[in-house]
Amino acid sequence: MTCPYCQGEMTKGYIQCRDGVYWTPDRALVSALSGIKKGAVPLRNDPEHTSNTAVAYFCQRCRKVMIDIK
């Protein structure tokens, strides 16, 4: 994948977390047993939705990560 910021090559990898990774519109305290609030978007892209893993591309030069959550 080509980095949209510097046009360099990005390295394919994964973002992983035991309980899932989410984007939320507001910052909130995250505890070990916290619930995900309304408006949260899961950042997984496993077509089977069986894992808490997202394929992600990392640009070493820009220090940016790109995730396509489909």
Low-pLDDT parts are none
How large, in whole angstroms, is the Cα Rg?
A: 14 Å
SS strand fraction: 25-35%
Instruction: Give the termini separation.
Output: 16 Å
Q: What's the arrangement of strands in the largest beta sheet?
A: 1-4-5
Mean pLDDT: 84
Structural classification: mainly beta
Could you tell me the number of beta strands? Answer: 5
Q: Note the main sheet.
A: 3 strands, antiparallel
Task: Give me the oligomer status.
Answer: single chain
Q: Share of helix among residues?
A: under 10%
Shape: globular
Q: What number of structural domains do the residues give? A: 1
The ordered string of helix (H) and strand (E) elements is EEEEE
Describe the secondary structure blueprint for this structure.
Elements: E1 11-16, E2 22-23, E3 41-42, E4 53-59, E5 64-67
What does the model show?
The chain is an all-beta fold. It has one domain (1-23, 40-70). 0% of the residues lie in helices and 30% in strands. The protein is built from no helices and 5 strands. The protein has a 3-stranded antiparallel β-sheet with strand order 1-4-5, with no helix packed on it. Strands 2-3 form a two-stranded antiparallel sheet. A hairpin with a 4-residue loop joins strand 4 and strand 5. The radius of gyration is 14 Å and the shape is globular. It starts with 10 loop residues before the first strand and ends with a strand. The model has no long low-confidence stretch (mean pLDDT 84).
